[in-house]
Amino acid sequence: MNITPVRDGEYRVEHDDRQDIVYVAAHGDSQWAFWNGHVFREERRRDEPEKTSAAASAARGPQRLTAPMPATVIKVLVSPKQKVGKGDTVVLLEAMKMELPVRALADGTVTAVNCREGDLVQPDQILVELS
Amino acid sequence: MIKRVLIANRGEIAVRVVRACREMGIESVAVYSDADRSAPHVAAADRAVAIGPAAAAESYLSIPRLLDAAKASGADAVHPGYGFLAENAGFADACERAGLTFVGPPASVITQMGSKIEARRLMQSAGVPVVPGETPEDQSDEGIQRAVHGAGFPALIKASAGGGGKGMRRVQTKSEALEAIQAARREATAAFGDGTLYVEHLIGRARHVEVQVLGDQHGQVVHLFERECSVQRRHQKIIEESPSPALSAGLRDAITSAAVRAAKAVAYRGAGTIEFLLEGTGDAARFYFLEMNTRLQVEHPVTEQVLGVDLVRAQLLVAAGERLAWTQYALAQRGHSIEARIYAEDPAQNFMPQAGPLVLCREPRMPGVRVDSGVVEGGEVTVHYDPLLAKVIATAETRELARQRLIAALRAYPILGIRTNIPFLLRVLDHPRLVAGDVDTGFLDGEGAGLAAAPELELPPFVRAVFDHHEAESQKARVDSRQSRSTADSRLLTLDSRLSTPDSADYDPWARLKEWRV
Fold first, then answer.
1. pLDDT, tens digit, for every residue of B374-395?
2. Closest approach of chain A CAs to the CA of B413, in angstroms?
3. Do B434 and B304 belong to one domain?
4. Shared-domain flag, residues B261 and B391
5. Which residue, A123, B121, B354, B493, has most beta carbons within 10 Å?
6. Any CB–CB contact under 8 A between A16 and chain B?
7. Which one of 3.20.20.30, 3.10.310.30, 3.40.309.10, 2.40.50.100 gives the CATH number of domain A58-130?
8. Which of B201, B227, B255 is the last residue of a domain?
9. Which of B355, B356, B469 sits opposite A3 (nearest CB)?
């Protein structure tokens, strides 16, 4: 295999009797590649323990419902001690002119509401906790 | 004639308008919010004026700030682009009152057509068929619910001031109605400042076919044929083309003359689009007026490509009072053009809009491919605005060749740092129903829905090798930069000596021209 840089972030790879152009860029802990319309993304620090995903933790114990991206809270639909069912919308966010519902991943009871209408929230910020 | 145009918009459409202005010798004035200080549309224009904070309501949607910017920059006309204030009659009116030429129809026409309810009534009286539905006087939850039941399921709740799928909700069953009504009203109020709703019966397996029209101030109206925009996800168009693969010659005549009739009914001026729903196929197909958009459309390039015209130029000429440059007979479709919209969104995560840096972003360059984009490598996609990054338009002799060309272009359009819909678009463009041109507006939400979550290709070994190579290179660069100045100096020296190597100087004939340099 022979790798030749073409431009910044662009490489020509000769392999298996053919050649391909591959684009690569790193940002933060992520490394991205593009080849022929396919996008690949990898975390660079592979030794670090993986973050427990919301879906995985939902199966057992408390749920922490988080903002998926920077967004504005437009409606908080639950209050502490309220019972919610799987799939119920607990908070309504708005980002890029679209409404994004944050839904309960399983049945539960609201233990804490950590946001208010009008708040600007950041990715992974915990908005609502359920038991 | 117009001398200086303020472009009350951002992103790709602002860049597009700048380009037309430059070709016509008209000066362009960009406006920008705090979030867009270094945006491409600002760099592209002849002048740029700051108009306020990132929030659109305080910048791109603020009429007083835009008028101030026009005054400060000495503009004599305003191009609104699409979205933001493009279909705001108050803005058109305020521009005219401030002595600025508004590049669009008169405020009264925007009002008439902006009220989808009023537009339906007008079209009916002009003999243009409309979708069966109801407009409740009683706008309460109960009133709309009654209208939903009246229209029958499935029904579509729509915003009177709506467009682009905002404030629109589909209702399949009675139990969904209330939540849908409230969400539609909220979205409509937030996006348009008007929560008035109406209800239409949802026509199943319909195509979205629209007709481009253009009118001048002297009473002439021409149509520029149709665009097919049936590839939509939740009422957001994704892939558009011209001509429509669904129109027979007879139907094309019927739908384009209906569009001209509709435009004449309101004494239309400027570029506009009449949207229709098309049900059935062949000459037996029926079409219904959906709405009229009193502005330039996102998908206008496919019309420009097959008609060989510049719609923004035409808009500016008409706004300046000139007669249309073409008669209807001079306009004909040639070849086929398909556009794909590139969005910052993650199809695998329910099309969640993505914000973040464009670490690498390289546009494809190839014959027959046009890229209208509003972003550059090194730029940042923020949460404040629409996630549309660019449009790729491929034109060729036939539909199939245009499709293949578009696929080739998207395969050569790397955008890294945030997720985009490019891999998804490629799957859509390869779907047998799209290949056959047999697509209705329900395609992507129904049969095509699985395309969003297609399994990702496993990392090929040669891409892994480039990853590792790149990682090693950048680590080396980091180590290098940490070393002493002397290293940096010596590298500069190496570079210098390379530039002045004798053989390169000897070899270059220009180096020996001396005073004969051109």
1. 999 999 999 899 999 999 999 9
2. 7
3. yes
4. yes
5. B354
6. yes
7. 2.40.50.100
8. B201
9. B469
Rounded to whole angstroms, how far apart are CA atoms B8 and B43? 15
Based on the fold, state whether residues B264 and B154 are members of the same structural domain.
no
- What are A28-86's pLDDT values in tens digits? 889 999 999 999 998 876 554 444 444 444 445 688 898 888 888 988 999 999 999 88
Residues of A within 8 A of B423 (CB-CB) are 37-39
Neighbours of A74 (CB within 10 A): 18
Task: For residues B315 and B193, state if they share a domain.
Answer: no
Name which of A34, A68, A99 is nearest B416 (Cβ-Cβ). A34
Residue B195, domain CATH: 3.30.1490.20
Test mutation, B466, B467, B468, chain A, max A CBs within 10 A: B466
Question: What integer pLDDT is reported at residue B457 of this predicted model?
Answer: 84
Q: Which of A26, A37, A71 sits opposite B411 (nearest CB)?
A: A37
Domain boundaries, chain A: 2-43, 58-130
Cβ-defined contact of B383 to A20 (cutoff 8 Å): no
B51: enclosing H helix or E strand: strand B47-52
Say which range, A105-114, B131-140, B156-165, has the weakest mean pLDDT. Answer: B156-165
What are the chain B neighbours of A1 within 8 Å (beta carbons)?
Answer: 462, 465
For chain B, the domain total comes to: 4
**B310 CB-side CA count, 13 A:** 13
One domain, residues B218 and B347: yes
- Which residues numbered 53-82 in A keep a CB inside 8 Å of some CB on B? 68-71, 74-75
Q: How far apart are CA A63 and CA A56, in angstroms?
A: 10
Chain B residues in contact with A31 by the CB 8 A cut-off are 467, 470-471
Full residue range of the structural domain in which residue B211 is found: 207-451
Looking at B396, B425, B451, which one is the last position of a domain?
A: B451
Residues B328 and B469 in one domain: no
CATH number at residue B75: 3.40.50.20
Domain presence at residue B189: yes
- The CA distance from B408 to the nearest CA of chain A, in Å, is 9
Neighbour order of strands in the sheet with B286-293: B286-293, B270-279, B207-215, B221-233, B236-242, B336-343, B388-396, B369-373
DSSP B305-367: HHHT--HHHHHHHHHTTPPPS--GGG----SEEEEEEEESEEGGGTTEE--EE-SEE-----T
Q: What is the rounded distance in angstroms from the CA atom of residue B333 to the CA atom of residue B234?
A: 30
One domain for residues B197 and B218: no
Mark yes or no for CB contact A27/B415 under 8 Å: no
Same domain assignment for residues B160 and B222: no
Measured between beta carbons, the chain B residues lying within 8 angstroms of A74 are 186, 190
Indicate yes or no: CB of B360 within 8 angstroms of CB of A25: yes
The answer to whether residue B112 is domain-embedded is: no
Across B53-192, the runs of DSSP E, i.e. the strands, are 77-79, 101-102, 133-134, 155-159, 169-171
Q: Which residues of A touch B185 (CB under 8 A)?
A: none
Backbone φ, ψ for residue B50 (5° rounding): -75, 135
For residue B384, which residues of chain A lie inside 8 Å, CB to CB?
96
Contacting residues of B for A71, CB less than 8 Å apart:
383
Prediction ipTM score: 0.84
